[in-house]
Structure formats: C-alpha cells, structure tokens
Amino acid sequence: MNILGIETSCDETGVAVYAIGVGLRAHAVYSQIELHAQYGGVVPELASRDHVRKLLPLIRQTLDEAGLGTGDIDGVAYTAGPGLVGALLVGAGVARSLAWALDVPAIGVHHMEGHLLAPLMEDATTQPPFVALLVSGGHTQLVAVEAIGRYRLLGETLDDAAGEAFDKTAKMMDLPYPGGPQLAALAEQGRPGIYRFSRPMTDRPGLDFSFSGLKTQVLLTWRDSDKSAQTRADIARAFEDAVVDTLAIKCERALEAAGCDTLVVAGGVGANRRLRARLQAMAEKRGGRVSFPRPVFCTDNGAMIAFAGALRLAAGQHGDAAVRVTPRWDMATLDAVG
C-alpha cells in the first residue's frame, strides 16, 4: 500500500511515498529560505505561490525516485492544518484532485501529529504510551500520548515558542535569516558560563513554558555589550543553554507526571545538537529512553505526513472529496487509531 504524502503548511514543499510493510520509499523537500530571506520572515502569499510552482514537479520527482507511477498510488495524505491557510489549500487541492482522479482514498493530516509520529517512522520499538515534546518555531508543547490519536496536553508555551525565541533572538543580534540555525551554530563557538540567563518558569510547579522574558534578557545584555564576535558567541551559548535546560527540566517533570519512561522529541528544534545530548543524558539517568527522528525529519517534510496518513488510512479512516483545511486545529480533537 503506497501512500503519497504532501506537506505545504508553511515554507517547505515536502513530498514522500511511504509503503505500509516496507517503509519510506522516497522523499524530497524544497525549501523557500532564499525566497523569504530578503523579508526576514515568511510572506504567506509568496509561500503559497511557490508551493503552486514546485509541488507537481516534486511529486513527479519523488515517484520517479521510488520507481513508481501514479497508478501505483493507493492513497494520498496531506497536511490539512495547522498552518498558513493559502499554503494549506495548495497541498489540499492537489491531493484531493489526485485522489479523485486515481479513485483512491485521501486524508487530511494534522501537522503536529505528523511531527509527533515522525520518530516512530524509523523506530518501531517506540510505541505509546510515551511523553512527546513538540518543539518548533510555532509550537512548544508537552503531550501525553496514550495511543495514536489519543493525546492529552500537559503543558505549552504561554508566549513565544522555543524556535520562535531562537529566531527572534538571532534577529536582535543581527544574524542572517533563518536565525535559529545560525544562532545554534554560533553558540558552538561560545564559552559556557560567561553569561547566564534565567530558566523561565522552572522555579514553580507546572509544565507550561515562557520564553519572552528570556528574549528580553538577551536583548538587554546584547545592547550593553561590546558586540565583539566572541561576545556574540558567548551570549548565543548562554541563551541556548537556558532554553535547553528549561526544556530538559520540564521534560523530566512531564515524564514523572505521566508515569512514563519514554520521551519522544519532534519538531525543528529537535535537531539541536545540545538539546539532543541533554535529553539523552536525562533519560539515561532516569533509566528511560528518548527517541528522536533523524535531523532531516525534524523540520517540515512529506515523509511524516505520508507515515501519519498511512496509519490512519490503514485503519479505514479517510475524508470525502471536499477540499478543507483547518489553519487552527486542536490535536486533542483527533480520532483515535484502532
């Protein structure tokens, strides 16, 4: 059963083919970073237009790499939300049209469920129940996963997501777009302990996050500094250490609250080298384990959508022929699988 996955929620066009019982056959991602760099952020209308331009060629490329034709597609999965409404509609329109033309089922996938399940795509040993940390530019959430499709929110950010804080902090320090990866790379050159920022909301009970105050601390420190290259790196290191420590502290609390030993980490910030090492050490100290997707599957991609869609299509779930998207979508409203 070959499932074509399409991801167009923001500024990456992702396509993949996942075969149930076989695994990932092929995947490709086209990034719009250069298109949006001159604006310092994603321009929704430009993102939508570029999806229109790239999606069909990318589908042809992915099918060729998988050694398949359109007649070999048994189902189509696409990101139906959350995300930019125009970008979502491009993927949904193509997916529904293709499914109708081929007379195969199609299903809209929740973008964050795609991220949450990405580590399971190549690691069959990780199965619910577990705690998931979804950490990206748009989300920072801790979720208790009782089964696929049964999610209970444990905590979330009250303001900036962790990835958003990385991007905004980088912009304050005049780093090029996209800022988050640039800041993480710069932090590798920083000296630990030269600066220290607070670990927000770790001095009180609860599993919610807040990163806006941390961002302000960095702004004030950067404003009053000598702005040398080493100082910039030292501040970047202190900021990254604060975010990583905060995430790790909250993850350990979440595991204890949920009574779980397994942590799953997904989303773009999940590719951060220091975060992966810190969470691995925390899990091992507790006698548990942590599962990450490969870095290429941390950021938005079609493979996670194909995999999540395949699980639901195999369970008999699918939608009608209407093109619908949900720019704001609570993951707790999803149906359980099985």
From TrEMBL:
Q: Which residues form the Gcp-like domain?
A: 24-307
User: What keywords does the record list, in alphabetical order?
Assistant: Acyltransferase, Cytoplasm, Iron, Metal-binding, Transferase, tRNA processing
Q: Matching Pfam families, A to Z?
A: TsaD
InterPro entries for the chain: ATPase_NBD, Gcp-like_dom, KAE1/TsaD, Peptidase_M22_CS, TsaD
Query: In the record's cofactor note, how is the cofactor described as bound?
Result: Binds 1 Fe(2+) ion per subunit.
One Gene Ontology CC term in the entry = cytoplasm
Q: Which transformation does this protein catalyse, written as a reaction?
A: L-threonylcarbamoyladenylate + adenosine(37) in tRNA = N(6)-L-threonylcarbamoyladenosine(37) in tRNA + AMP + H(+)
Q: GO molecular function: any one?
A: iron ion binding
Localization recorded for this chain is: Cytoplasm
Tell me its EC number(s), please.
2.3.1.234
Checking SUPFAM superfamilies in the record gives: Actin-like ATPase domain
Q: What is one GO biological process annotated to this record? A: tRNA threonylcarbamoyladenosine modification
Identify which cofactors the protein needs according to its UniProt entry.
Answer: Fe(2+)
- Positions binding Fe cation in this chain are 111, 115, 300
Q: Where does substrate bind?
A: 134-138, 167, 180, 272
**Record HAMAP family:** TsaD
Q: What does this protein do?
A: Required for the formation of a threonylcarbamoyl group on adenosine at position 37 (t(6)A37) in tRNAs that read codons beginning with adenine. Is involved in the transfer of the threonylcarbamoyl moiety of threonylcarbamoyl-AMP (TC-AMP) to the N6 group of A37, together with TsaE and TsaB. TsaD likely plays a direct catalytic role in this reaction.
State the name under which the record lists this protein: tRNA N6-adenosine threonylcarbamoyltransferase
Organism expressing this protein natively: Agrilutibacter solisilvae
